[in-house]
Amino acid sequence: MWRKTALVWFGTVIFLNMAVFTAPGAADEDAEQVQITNIPREVKSGAQAYKIFIMLSTGASAKAGYVAKGEALINGATSAVINLKKPDGRPWIGTGLFNIAIVISPKEVSTSKDIDVHGGEKIFSSKIQHIAWAPGLINLHDIAPAQVGEIFDGIIKPDTDIIKN
User: Would the pLDDT of 108 be above 90?
Assistant: First the structure.
């Protein structure tokens, strides 16, 4: 009797696992995630924060490209959970030390001065990473304005959610 109960239980567990891992949208659940907290409700220009982006790179400039990126509409929210994707759009899973750039944009922009960009280094070692916006991050407008311009041209300009004036 015990064997039959164990086999039924084991079969049920296997069936439920298969249903969960093969369900539509399950691929995004396998992606590494970043939870960004302490997001300001407004960018420095005073406009409401509308969208947030994060890029992970092994290089030190925007031209180095990225190994993973993600984005989320925030509409003034102070936290967001973002799934990270590879350049080909597939879910990204990885560990190690990465340079990160986090960009906050209002809905309408004219120049790179309209966005806030902070950066730093982060060790990724688990399924979800927690990053607070200001503590430990460097304002890239202050130390790398050319890199902010590259980020604006490469990330903000092509984005269809953001209006360019």
Answer: yes
